[in-house]
Amino acid sequence: MTPGELRRLYFIIHTFLSYGLDELIPKMRITLPLRIWRRMLFWMPNRHQDQPLGARLRLALQELGPVWIKFGQMLSTRRDLFPPHIADQLALLQDRVAPFEGKLAQQQIEKAMGGAAGRDLV
């Protein structure tokens, strides 16, 4: 893994743990190495204990970015997979996500493509 990939993985793990989403892993499935690993990450407590699980999942997906929001939107269409309180929160990702600034999107595209976005996308 490259240093950039490791940073991204750390950010994803940090986000999931800071929203208390390790709660989604069934207790019986947590092996000893996972329990030890979780204890080693004690500095990443659940910062949103006042929020219900569905809201924490939605907020974490929003913090992780557009790809994760799209993943949440896809999950929201499968109400048969989740309890109603989680499915209702995921449904909010369909049309109640904060807008993404166009200038920032253009900068990201130019950075990824190494050139002017308008010229390359025409």
Give an overview in words.
Helix 3 runs parallel beside helix 5. The chain has one domain. It has 122 residues and is mainly alpha-helical. It starts with a helix and ends with a helix. It has seven helices and no strands. The longest helix is centred in the N-terminal third of the chain and has 16 residues.
How many discrete structural domains?
A: 1
Task: List low-confidence stretches.
Answer: none
- Structural class by sheet pairing and helices: mainly alpha
What portion of the residues fall into strands of 2 or more residues? under 5%
Straight-line N-to-C gap: 34 Å
Biggest sheet, in brief?
none
Q: Helix content range of the residues, please? A: 55-70%
H/I helix tally: 7
> Mind telling me the C-alpha Rg?
17 Å
* Overall pLDDT level: 83
List the helices and strands and how they pair.
Elements: H1 3-18, H2 32-40, H3 53-64, H4 66-76, H5 84-95, H6 102-113, H7 117-120
Keywords, separated by commas or semicolons:
7 helices, 0% strand, 62% helix, 122 residues
Short description:
The protein is 62% helix and 0% strand.
